[in-house]
From TrEMBL:
It is an enzyme of class 3 (hydrolase). Pfam families: Acylphosphatase. The active site is at 18, 36. Belongs to the acylphosphatase family. GO terms for molecular function: acylphosphatase activity. InterPro entries: Acylphosphatase, Acylphosphatase-like_dom, Acylphosphatase-like_dom_sf, Acylphosphatase_CS. It catalyses: an acyl phosphate + H2O = a carboxylate + phosphate + H(+). PANTHER family: ACYLPHOSPHATASE, ACYLPHOSPHATASE-RELATED. It comes from Weissella soli. Its EC number is 3.6.1.7. Keywords: Hydrolase. This is acylphosphatase.
Amino acid sequence: MQAINIHIFGHVQGVGFRYSTQLIAKKHHITGVVWNVSDGTVKIEAQGAEADIEHFVAAIKANPSPFARIDQVIVTAGTVDENRRTFRTI
């Protein structure tokens, strides 16, 4: 199990980005959470099998929302939370 944090910069709020992220997470068996930050960015905490995480990150970088514009994606190591069973938006 691997955990990561992703910080997305660009025009990513109010364009369905969190919902699209949730769909991709479910497709790749990822648990975690995605939320809007007050500075206009989006943050994601995600965890899953290493191969699933790689596919998830690639899908996020490919821009899952047709109305979003991603300027920068920063991925850092996270901490596994064994209690997470779903992927949700907040």
